[in-house]
Amino acid sequence: MSFQALxxxxxxxxxxxxxxxxxxxxxxxxYEKLSHMALEADRRKERDEQ
Length: 50
Description:
This is Cbb3-type cytochrome c oxidase subunit CcoQ. The chain is mainly alpha-helical. It contains three helices and no strands. The protein is elongated.
């Protein structure tokens, strides 16, 4: 197996592993929490300005 083929295979496997890790159902709660962080920060900032 050539170096280029091995390099491609390693990065493809790494990409697939990361994709599976990111999209697994158990991470949904974490992503929902993170998606609201910016909104919560804006709300706190607006409250502090009043």
